[in-house]
Amino acid sequence: MTRSEYAKQTRICFLDDRDAVAHYVKTCEQAELKKILTVADDVVNQSFLFNLRWDMERTFEPVVFTDEIDWLHQPGDDSEWVFAFNRMRFWICLGQAYACTKDEKYARTFAHQMCDWVKRVKRTDPLCAKAWRSIEAGLRMEYWTKAMQYFLDSPSITEEVVDVFLCSITEHAQFLYSVWDSYHLMSNWGVLENHGLFLASLAMPKSQTSDSYTKEALRRLALEIQIQVYDDGVQWEQSPMYHNEVAHDFLDVVLMAKRLSLPIDDAIVEKTHLMCLASMAWQKPDGTEPCMGDSDRIDQRDIVSKGAYLFGDGRLKAAGYPHLDFDCVWDLGAKAIEAYDRLPSTRMQQTLTVLTESGNAIVRDNDTYLRFHCGTLGAGHGHSDKLHFDLYANGEDIFVDAGRFTYVPKAERYEFKDSTAHNTTTVDRKNFTVCKDSWECSKLSAPLGFRAVQKGPYCALQGSHQGYLDVGVLPKRTIITLGEGLILLSDAFLSVTEHTYQSYLHFNASGKVKLTDDGTFFESPNSKVQVLVCSGGGVTQFVKATRMSWHYNQLSDNKTLVSEIETVGFGSLFTLISVDKADRFVPAKLSKVRVMSNFKKIRFGDDWIEAVKVERGKQSFTVVVAHQEWATPTDTFNADGCTGFGSVVVFDTAAGEKEIGTRLFC
């Protein structure tokens, strides 16, 4: 088949006008185009570095082949290099470089490397198994079919090249069609595979066979999105990076179905929209996804922007790019540029967003962002992160999730997966979720009691888990945001035996951390943050050297504050976080106050109900937190002169509030 014949029959239609898109990126996306041209030139020179935005396992040292390419080469102990190499995302860069320059070297390289790979990497050869995992086969079908769009006027795409391409596309489709079971139904692998099958079927000459592949791919994808995506829009594996990869695939499916008038299940359309809204919900103010589970610090606004265009959603437009970026325009085409620009942005004023089924709550207050998690593990890509929170303010991360770093089953994998890598609590310095290997756990911990509420200027987030029932402890965390950078944590440990309890706060690497008599301080050019703690007994604190990973294979040194208490029976720890700009620091104070029964005239024990006083400048609050039922018979509490009822109550004492207060939880 000639390239012109292929161009007429292919139904891959992401690009409506290649040259118009090329003109747009040369005019409006020059910085990104420069990066892509560098990648393309490296590929021409057989130098491979995986550093594109959505490269799932990034590398930082190029691998160069001076002779023929060894497609199964593994430069270290991590098979992920082989997997990433055999996905060929970099061929899309060759295509984009060709579209923008018309330099035939890019087309020649694509044709040569593709034909070489097909000739030498055989699916039936056991030695090629790492190149022929089903997930790689699915990803290849996206990257190969999209790449070919760019070269259809190139003389390097000969009839022989087209035949090799279509022969391999057909083989991939046959293979992907054969891969289907309960694992693929539930895993992101299934989506990536069947997205590949769907695109392969559209690249093949239309026939009864290709139509059957299209129909079956859409059937499987409908089942997968229904079982994998919660009603709040979150993909169940609790990893924003894999959530976004799955969302990307479904956005492709919705787009192709619209343009080709293909019938698809309503569930695909509805839940793809929900997935984009979930991405918007947890997006940090700098446009990146949180490093939750096996995720990297990636600017995810291309996903949100594509969702805005496809669903005509101004809320997504406000969270996305003001104009289509480099990646979006190649996937959506030239006509989408003006359509996206015409779409009005609808800025959301919502402070609290709750993703109930997945157990995620996000609080936004101007530039301050806090994300709390108390949901399911999410299988292999999930981390031991129940009750963890992230904090972003003043244009930077303050408290971070340590990230993932590697998938190799060695010490570093567990260093970043374990409870101690997260801003959560432990009992006796033991993990509440225990890893068996890189993907499986020998001990799990079900979430309990996740809830979140906003009343007036305050938000309260709460959760617990079953991770320490085997040692007779139930941990419970309550986070109260008081506004203007004041955040109070209440960590309670319900038990009747002797234990030590630890709280971890992982600071971003961008600042200096110092433990003093006046609290722990994080100082950066943007921020000065003070951390204070108090408890019914003594608190031991120390700052230890730890590591964080913004991207796979990347490490940075940071500091972690560990606060520890030791009790027989009930234990609790209050932590106040006071966030200021670096040049506007005002010291804060935190102290416990006694809580009395107005009816019985007795002092409540700490295991019943506690209260703290929070002060900073002109701000003053009394916050009451109950750990169990306490009102018997009819009763109210008196906390430092404040009378009220409930399990979490805030009094703005600076405003003279002494009665009722704001009851956040009953």
From TrEMBL:
Residues 353-537 form the Heparinase II/III-like C-terminal domain. GO terms for cellular component: periplasmic space. Keywords: Lyase, Periplasm, Signal. Residues 5-303 form the Heparin-sulfate lyase N-terminal domain. GO terms for molecular function: lyase activity. It is found in: Periplasm. It comes from the Bacteria. Gene3D superfamilies: 2.70.98.70, Chondroitin AC/alginate lyase. Its main location: periplasm. Pfam families: Hepar_II_III_C, Hepar_II_III_N. This is Heparinase II/III family protein. It comes from Sphaerochaeta globosa (strain ATCC BAA-1886 / DSM 22777 / Buddy) (Spirochaeta sp. (strain Buddy)).
